[in-house]
C-alpha cells in the first residue's frame, strides 16, 4: 500500500515526513510568488492547501499511532476483546491504511484480533481491529471523515453530488465508497439507538410539547419474479411505498416554536408500529411525563389515531396532560370538497358556505357543522358527501379548536407536512429514482437528524461500539 500522505507500507517515520512538509511551507513563506491573475491565485491556493492537507494527515497519523501505542487505549482494546460476543485471538500487529478528513491515507500499526480456531490457508478469519474500534474508526475512516461523508450523502441531492463536493475538498472517493461509508454509518447509529435508553441532554419537563406523524412517498426497487434480462440482471418493479415520519417539538407560551429546543425527527419504512415504537423511545428519553401539555396533532389517518391511546397508556401520561387534535386545515379541506360537490351552487355560494363552516369550527361548534352537512347528503353526489360527513363525525372529539386556541397551542400540522417534504421529497423522491429498502432507511435516518439539527447526537451514536457488543 502506498499512502497519499507520502508514506509507504515500510515507512512510518512521521517525524521525518512532517518536517519535509514544514520545510516546503517555510520555503513558500521565504519566496513569495507573484500572482497576476485569478487563475494563478487559485492555483497558489490549491498548492498551499495540498501541502497543509498533507501536513494535517501526517499529524493525524502520528497522533493516531501514539494513541494506539498508549497503555490506556491498549487496556481499553483488551477490555473490548474480552466483552466481544465471540472469542477472539490476537493475530499480531498489522499495518492498516486510515483515510483522514484531509483526503489522504496514513498507515498505522494496530493489533488484529481474529476468531479462535485453526486459521484457513490464504484467508483471514472474521475479526476486528479493536484499537481502531475504541477510537471510533470504522471502514478505515477517521470519525471526522465518516461523519462528513455521511452528512454530504444526506444533505445533497445524490451520492454523486456528495462525491463531487468531497473531490473539490481534496477527498477522492468513488461513489461506491461514499455509499458504503454513509450507509454503514447510519446502520451503526440505528443499532446504537435501539439499545440506548439514556435521557437526552435536553428534556421537555415543564414544556408544551407537540407530536405529529404522517406518511411520505417514494419508490422502492423490489425484485420481480421471472427470468432475468439478456444481461443477466434481475428484473424489478418500482413500487410506491409510504415512509412514516415523526416530529416532536416544543412551543412557547404564545404557541410559537421554541427555538431553544431542537426538534426530534425520524422516519422509517417499517410501518406504523415501527414509527410509534420509535416515538415511544424518544418520548421516554425526553421525560415526556413531566411536560405541561402534550398535543398529538395529525390528519385523519386511522393508522395514527388508533395507536395514540395505546402510546399514551404505555408512556403513563395523565389524561389532563394530553390533547388530540385533527389538523384544522384538513378538516376545512373536507368541507371545501363538500361544497365543490354541490354542482347546483354558484362559486360564490360555495365560498360563502365553506367560510361559514370554517368560522363555526374555530368557535368549537362542531355539531352545527355536522348538522349543516347532513341535509346536503342527497342527490347525485350524496355518497361522496356522506363520506365527508362521517369523517367529521369520526373525528368530532379531535376538533376542539377553540379550546386549543385559548391554550395557545397549534391547530395545524404544518410542521409535519414540511418535515415530510424536507426529509423525504427533496431527497428520496424524484423522476426515475428507485431505492433499495436498506438504502432508503439509511438516508431517512441521516437526513432526519440533519434536518432536526441533531447531527452531533447521530455522530455520537455512529461512533459508539456498544451495539457491536450486543450482536
Features:
471 residues, alpha+beta, five-stranded mixed beta sheet, three-stranded antiparallel beta sheet, 15% strand
Q: What features would you describe in this structure?
A:
The chain has helices spanning 14-30, 38-69, 71-83, 130-134, 143-155, 159-168, 175-195, 272-285, 302-305, 308-315, 328-341, 347-362, 366-373, 382-394, 401-406, 414-428, 437-452, 455-463, 466-470, and strands at residues 88-99, 105-115, 127-128, 208-215, 218-223, 236-241, 244-251, 264-268, 293-298, 322-326. With 471 residues, it is α+β, with helices and mostly antiparallel strands. It has a five-stranded mixed sheet with strand order 8-7-4-9-10, with helices on both faces. Strand 1 (88-99) and strand 2 (105-115) form a beta hairpin. Helix 1 packs antiparallel against helix 2 (38-69), helix 5 (143-155) packs across helix 7 and helix 7 (175-195) crosses helix 17. The protein is elongated and about 90 Å long.
What separation lies between the terminal Cα atoms? Answer: 32 Å
- The overall average pLDDT, rounded, is 90
Oligomer: single chain
**Major β-sheet annotation:** 5 strands, mixed
Q: Based on DSSP secondary structure assignment, what is the total number of beta strands? A: 10
Briefly note the structural class of the backbone.
alpha+beta
Q: How would you describe the shape?
A: elongated
Query: Per DSSP, what share of the residues sits in E-state strands of 2 or more residues?
Result: 5-15%
Helix content range: 40-55%
**Element-level helix/strand string:** HHHEEEHHHHEEEEEHEHHEHHHHHHHHH
The number of distinct helices, counting runs of at least 4 residues, comes to: 19
* Rg (C-alpha, Å): 29 Å
- What spatial order of strands do you see in the largest sheet? 8-7-4-9-10
Uncertain runs: 6-11
Amino acid at each position: 500500500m502506498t499512502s497519499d500522505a507520502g508514506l509507504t507500507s515500510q515507512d512510518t517515520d512521521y517525524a521525518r515526513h512532517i518536517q519535509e512538509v514544514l520545510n516546503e511551507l517555510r520555503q513558500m513563506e521565504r519566496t513569495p510568488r507573484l500572482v497576476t491573475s485569478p487563475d494563478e491565485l487559485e492555483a497558489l491556493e490549491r498548492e498551499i492547501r495540498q501541502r497543509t492537507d498533507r501536513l494535517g494527515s501526517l499529524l493525524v497519523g502520528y497522533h493516531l499511532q501514539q494513541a494506539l501505542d498508549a497503555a490506556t487505549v491498549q487496556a481499553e482494546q483488551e477490555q473490548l476483546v474480552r466483552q466481544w460476543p465471540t472469542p477472539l485471538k490476537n493475530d499480531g500487529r498489522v499495518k492498516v491504511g486510515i483515510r483522514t478528513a484531509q483526503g489522504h491515507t496514513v498507515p498505522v500499526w494496530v493489533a488484529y484480533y481474529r476468531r479462535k480456531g485453526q486459521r484457513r490457508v490464504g484467508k483471514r478469519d472474521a475479526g476486528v481491529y479493536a484499537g481502531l474500534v475504541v477510537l471510533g474508526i470504522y471502514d478505515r475512516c477517521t470519525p471526522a471523515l465518516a461523519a462528513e461523508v455521511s452528512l454530504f450523502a444526506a444533505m445533497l441531492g445524490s451520492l454523486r453530488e456528495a462525491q463531487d463536493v468531497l473531490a473539490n475538498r481534496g477527498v477522492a472517493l468513488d461513489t461506491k465508497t461514499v455509499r458504503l461509508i454513509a450507509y454503514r454509518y447510519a446502520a451503526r447509529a440505528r443499532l446504537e439507538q435501539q439499545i440506548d435508553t439514556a435521557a437526552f441532554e435536553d428534556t421537555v419537563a415543564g414544556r408544551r410539547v407537540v407530536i405529529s406523524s404522517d406518511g411520505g412517498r417514494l419508490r422502492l426497487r423490489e425484485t420481480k419474479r421471472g427470468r432475468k434480462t439478456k444481461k443477466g440482471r434481475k428484473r424489478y418493479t418500482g413500487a410506491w411505498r409510504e415512509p412514516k415520519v415523526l416530529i416532536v417539538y416544543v412551543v412557547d407560551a404564545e404557541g410559537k416554536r421554541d427555538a431553544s429546543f431542537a426538534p426530534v425527527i425520524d422516519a422509517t419504512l417499517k410501518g406504523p408500529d415501527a414509527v410509534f415504537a420509535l416515538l415511544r423511545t424518544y418520548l421516554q428519553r425526553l421525560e415526556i411525563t413531566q411536560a405541561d401539555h402534550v398535543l398529538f396533532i395529525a390528519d385523519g389517518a386511522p393508522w395514527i389515531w388508533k395507536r395514540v391511546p395505546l402510546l399514551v397508556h404505555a408512556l403513563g401520561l395523565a389524561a389532563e396532560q394530553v390533547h388530540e387534535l385533527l389538523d384544522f386545515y384538513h378538516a376545512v379541506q373536507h368541507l371545501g370538497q363538500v361544497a365543490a360537490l354541490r354542482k347546483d351552487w354558484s362559486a360564490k355560494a360555495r365560498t360563502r358556505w365553506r367560510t361559514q363552516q370554517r368560522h363555526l369550527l374555530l368557535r368549537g361548534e362542531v355539531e352545527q357543522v355536522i348538522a349543516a352537512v347532513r341535509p346536503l347528503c342527497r342527490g347525485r353526489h350524496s355518497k361522496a358527501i356522506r363520506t365527508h360527513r362521517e369523517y367529521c363525525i369520526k373525528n368530532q372529539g379531535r376538533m376542539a379548536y377553540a379550546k386549543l386556541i385559548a391554550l395557545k397551542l397549534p391547530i395545524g400540522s404544518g410542521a409535519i407536512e414540511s418535515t415530510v417534504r424536507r426529509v423525504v421529497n427533496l431527497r428520496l423522491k424524484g423522476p426515475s429514482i428507485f431505492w433499495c429498502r436498506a438504502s432508503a432507511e439509511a438516508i431517512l435516518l441521516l437526513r432526519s437528524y440533519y434536518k432536526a439539527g441533531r447531527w452531533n447526537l447521530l455522530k455520537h451514536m455512529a461512533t459508539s461500539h456498544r451495539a457491536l457488543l450486543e450482536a
